[in-house]
Amino acid sequence: MKTFEVPVIYRSPLISAIKNKRKEQDRMKKDFTPTVLDLGAVRILLARHFGFCYGVENAIEIAFRTIEENPDKRIFLLSEMIHNPHVNNDLLSRGVQFLMDTSGRQLIPWEQLKAADVVIIPAFGTTLEIEAKLTSLGIIPLQYNTTCPFVERVWNKAGQIGQKDYTVIVHGKPGHEETRATFSHSQAGTPTVVVKDISEARLLADFITGTQPASLFYERFKGQYSTGFDVVQHLQRVGVVNQTTMLATETQAIADYIRDVMQQHYQLTPATIHERFADTRDTLCYATNDNQSAVTGMLQQPADLAIVVGGYNSSNTSHLVELCEARLPTYFISSEEKILSRAAILHYDFHHKQELQSNTFLPEQGPVSILLTSGASCPDALVEGVIRKIARFYNAEEKLEAAI
Ligand code: SF4
Prior knowledge:
It holds the Pfam family LYTB. The chain is an alpha/beta fold. Helix content is about 40%, strand content about 15%.
């Protein structure tokens, strides 16, 4: 896979060495067991795959190069480039300005942009409406484009099934930048509706089968269907695509469920199901699959707790947390700064969108086993910071250096 020039501050010699060694030993990526850092009183089990993915490194390389090559220009990002506060703050500190927040709320009015300005499209991609807006302001919309190719692959898939007259069901978070972009690209070619989870997929199925009155659809899916969507006409042939970072098991469950509903409702067989249901397989990206499989592999090991490092608004990171917290106490932190002491930690509850403090973080009695992973937008340097801080609590710095 292509390698990128990423600022050295985001790298970690420790993590790079571990990743390179695992890659050499397992080129086909079949082994999802964690790497064990045995520091005596504490064992840290590092997931097989974590940290910066292809799309994030690509976006960082383009953004930093753009800043370097345009010292005299004003540089804007449509919104956060990726969901990591450290990377976004670094860009802000270099003079980059965000035009919108992650929910699409305008921070800087369009009217303030000039044709000579540089506008960078984030890794999530953007909507056709925003591209048109930039064009109307004299700005070439895709000149500085960091849209991840795996996101574009979803748009292409939606386009392909749309051309065959299937309606596109997008499994994604309706407010997420990527899902908004996918929705926009998809609806340009075919009727499109967004479902955020399996319960919304069940609700949609009620409209497919006519169990619920059609008029209710427009209320229940408000803001999630394309202009002119006809609930009676447009749910007769469907296909499912996903936001690239959803939980793999849920994505599979939704696609299987909708296919079963179509099969039963229209009395189809496996040989004729394609008449009503497009086989898209899932459109999750490789990093989502690898990172979630690595967490599943890591969870096979006995451990006392798990730590997941990443931006609090990062979708892919929150799904790693979801997997871990189903099995053991899990702390979602943005960096080692959140670890206040051996007992106290500030961590994010993404279900209720609030940061909490726990005062029973590391068990008093050892030895302690900790599972550790991070999201696809999290610099490895932050994970190393967490490892070093924990090693200090157990006076294991020398052992860590020896391990390095
Ligand atoms: S998580 Fe996947 S889709 Fe998102 S930027 Fe990374 S590789 Fe691309």
